[in-house]
Amino acid sequence: MVQLVFAVGSLRENSFNRKAMERTAALLSSRAHITYAQYADLPLLNEDDEPFTPIAVVRERQKLQEAQGLWLFCP
Description:
Elements: E1 2-8, H1 16-28, E2 32-36, H2 55-66, E3 69-73
Parallel strand pairs: 1-2, 1-3
């Protein structure tokens, strides 16, 4: 089974892009293992903080490293 990460380009709960992502996930549910990018808590890039990787960055980086594909749903 293919491993995908889905990311939606809007944080709004009922956005069109989120609905498209959810519908796509439902259509692929028998053929793909889907995880969802969670980036609301990701910090902005600050090179002064690079030696201290925030846990949210570690979490999302791990998802992407394990995935075989990334699907973006954005305007």
